Amino acid sequence: AGPIVEPVSETDEVVEPAPGDEPMVRAEQVWKWFGDSDVLRGIDITVHPRQTLVLLGPSGSGKSTLLRCVNALEKIDSGLLEVDGERVGLRTAADGQLHEMPPAHLCRQRTRIGMVFQRFNLFPHMTALENVALGPRRVLGLPRGQAEAEAERLLTRVGLRDKLDAYPAQLSGGQQQRVAIARALAMKPHLMLFDEPTSALDPELVGEVLDVMKDLARRGMTMIVATHEIGFAKEVADTVAMLDGGVIVESGPPGACLVEPKEERTRAFLSKVL
Ligand code: ADP
Ligand code: MG
């Protein structure tokens, strides 16, 4: 079998980052608690446009919660979180107030962030093409023809040109996940979040989904990826952050973090997943 995705050519469009040199995501001392359990305990991260941050860490370390805060599906309890130039939640030390984004902003914010979960959550009664075209039609108000032409282009890009009319039940897990990625891309996101996108897949289907994600990174998409795929992290990440107990115990370029980790907890984690 050949490569799933066609190589990036000179003429291909590259994802446009937001104007300016502002970070796409800036978190400073972000705290999140549920009841009396602290789930994120002072997270600092910066993700610049066109960069990929890979979040590693054991189950329960806070990876999903952090992604959900970035996507404003959860409110932070303390700290500063700015995504794509807008505040998702802020509590300044100076006034101690939590300044929240108005709901209309939150909605707009979410349409600029694509999220791909472990489970694909495609609509079972819609074809691949319809699943991908739905958001642009409903949320962006694109006419059907235009939304479907764009959906066809994106499904072709993820290697599913011959599956446009297939229903999710007729697709493998890897194919469904690629439809889910195309569906997220159809909203023209500035940022893509992936929460263990290959964890529910049979091992032989993992590669085709990672290939699509690598292609996306090469095209300049800004991404945060929670995964246990160390090979992917080594190849694609600009920065790796190792979470444990709601704290980033180690972060840096993958060459340093994954090859010569300084922290015992990073070494222990890597010895389990490698
Ligand atoms: P990971 O994705 O790294 O496995 P999570 O972010 O899902 O970690 O979870 C971190 C911790 O937060 C876990 O202890 C989990 O039980 C807890 N947690 C996550 N969501 C909630 C919630 N909605 N209510 C209470 N506790 C939660
Ligand atoms: Mg998780």
UniProtKB/TrEMBL annotation:
Highest taxon above the source species: Bacteria
Location(s), subcellular: Cell membrane
ABC transporter domain location: 25-270
Family label: Belongs to the ABC transporter superfamily. Belongs to the binding-protein-dependent transport system permease family.
Protein name (Swiss-Prot/TrEMBL): Amino acid ABC transporter permease/ATP-binding protein
Naturally occurring in which organism (per UniProt): Nonomuraea mesophila
Phylogenetic placement of the source organism: Bacteria, Bacillati, Actinomycetota, Actinomycetes, Streptosporangiales
